[in-house]
Design brief:
176 residues, mainly alpha, 0% strand, globular
Length: 176
Amino acid sequence: MPDAEPAGNPFWAYSLERYARPGVAEACLALQDRLGADVNLLLFCCWAGHRGHRLAAAELESLLAVSRPWQDEVVWPLRRVRRRLKAEAGSAAAVAALREAVKAAELEAERIVQDRLQACLPLAAGPADEAALAANLALYMALERAGAVRSENALVAEGLSAEDERAVATLRAAGL
């Protein structure tokens, strides 16, 4: 998630700032690639905790209903094309230019889904809450691991590899 204008969405501004922190991009992409996690939802979980909000299962399910179709039908196809072009981008200027255009479209698609998430659940600023941030990530990771939210008190460590636990810990540390 490279630098871009925040476009008036405080969640987008937060995401850009946090994503640029050491280790955050790598942690998000590792969870995305290994578990199919939605980077925007990972960041929303952190943002909610940063604003002092503990997500309820129903809220997270609403966010997923907003994000998933857009991710499946727009963001992921753009990402696949961008990744496919990466191997050839170094050998042909036209391919490199196409890859950059696809990358810009992917970033814009990410911004649009963040606007939609923000509209779905606008959060007032409150004092950052480390426990809420950890609970938000735990709930989301439980959803990704199980395919459904079983409990608002799901443990993030259950069933995660040590590598995934480290990635989640990186997000928790950078989220506040």
